[in-house]
Structure formats: structure tokens, C-alpha cells
Design a protein that fits this description.
The chain has about 200 residues and is α/β, with parallel strands linked by helices. It has a domain of about 130 residues: Rossmann fold, CATH 3.40.50. It is about 30% helix and about 25% strand. The protein contains six helices and twelve strands. The strands form four sheets. It has a six-stranded parallel beta sheet with strand order 5-2-6-7-1-8, sandwiched between helices. A two-stranded antiparallel sheet has the order 3-4. The chain has a two-stranded antiparallel sheet with strand order 9-10. Strand 9 and strand 10 form a beta hairpin. It is globular and about 50 Å long. About 35% of the residues are buried.
Length: about 200
């Protein structure tokens, strides 16, 4: 019977860990599984790993149109870092669901600005979707974290990195950190006035 589970949350919230947990349960039930990841995620090419060190091999695809053929005869299809896939991911999900597959989709629902990321919002809106929204631990105060903060500040939506570039923060710490990153540098402003 077809199923669609969508695992979302900020960075460091355990999305890949939950994906691997559900795949392990499927394997115990003697269902065949495959994990698919986009070429965009260059951190662990060909492997999906949780932060506690568990890893599974993954098939890397460049375009979401390749997902249905890659899923082939597998019973359960896991898709990690789904926010990086193009608009064809939606039709791939619908095709696989109609074929009776169990789908587990994991990805960031929002980017470092708190805005929608890729097509995750549309995937979450699929009526059959079971949403699992995870939270991390705020790396500054220890409260529940719901936001991904980019340490370097503004830039392109996609910038591959891990703890070197990102932090999981609660709403309050995120606001404070964002204000500091975007606040004008008084020394630089004074230097510009002198040069003018």
C-alpha cells in the first residue's frame, strides 16, 4: 500500500536519522529499499549518514525525472535532501505513489532566511502526506531550535556546508544573531566616510 512520509525541520534536527530509522524498519519487514540523493549535496556523495554515524549507500541523481526509473522495483524509496531537487520531484512523487510505493522524503522546509526551500512546501501540501516536523537543540541557549542560521550572513539560497557554516537556533537566538550579522559595521562606515 502506498505511503508518503515527509520529514522536515531545520539543520541538525535529525531528518536523515529519522529517514534511516524508517528504512531500517522497512528492511526488518523484508521490504526492498533504495535511497536517492541529489548531486547538489556534495558532503557525502553516494551515502546518507546520520549524525550518530549510521550510513547507507545512496543512488545519486542529477535530475528528479530520473527518480522513478531509479526507484525501479524497490518497495520503499527514500529521498534525502529533497529541497535541492527541481520541480520534477512533484511529478516523480505522484508517479511513485500511484505505483504503490512507500515514499520517505527528507529535507529542509525553510532556508537560512526562514523562507520556503525548493518544493518542500508543495510536497507537504500533498493530501496523503504524513508530516514529521523535527526540531534541533539551539546551539546557543539549549532551547528547541526551529531555524537554520548561516554564520556568514546573506548570500545565495544554496551554500553547501555543515557546522562550519550553519547553526540550529531557536527563534530568539536566530533574531539576535541575524541582527548582528546584518548590522552595519561602524568602523567600516567611518572608513568609507573618510575615503569619500
Amino acid at each position: 500500500m502506498a505511503e508518503l512520509t515527509v520529514i522536515v525541520g531545520c539543520m541538525f534536527s535529525g531528518k536523515s536519522e529519522e529517514l534511516l530509522r524508517l528504512l531500517k524498519r522497512a528492511a526488518i519487514a523484508r521490504l526492498s529499499t533504495v535511497v536517492i540523493q541529489p548531486t547538489t549535496d556534495t558532503r557525502t556523495v553516494g551515502r546518507v549518514c546520520s549524525r550518530d554515524g549510521r550510513c547507507v549507500d545512496a543512488v545519486v541523481v542529477r535530475d528528479a525525472r530520473a527518480i522513478p526509473s531509479t526507484a525501479g522495483l524497490y518497495d520503499v524509496v527514500g529521498i534525502d535532501e529533497a529541497q535541492f531537487f527541481d520541480e520534477h520531484l512533484l511529478s516523480a512523487i505522484h508517479e511513485l505513489y500511484a505505483a504503490g510505493k512507500r515514499l520517505i522524503i527528507a529535507g529542509l522546509d525553510t532556508d537560512y532566511r526562514g523562507e520556503r526551500f525548493g518544493y518542500m512546501d508543495q510536497i507537504m501540501a500533498i493530501p496523503e502526506a504524513r508530516i514529521v516536523k523535527l526540531r534541533a537543540v539551539c546551539m546557543r541557549c539549549g532551547e528547541e531550535a526551529t531555524r537554520t542560521f548561516r554564520k556568514s550572513g546573506a548570500g545565495a539560497q544554496v551554500e553547501i556546508g555543515d557546522g562550519d557554516k550553519y547553526e540550529a537556533l531557536c527563534y530568539s537566538c536566530y533574531r539576535l544573531a541575524s541582527e548582528r550579522v546584518t548590522a552595519p559595521n561602524p568602523t567600516a562606515a567611518a572608513a568609507q566616510r573618510v575615503l569619500a
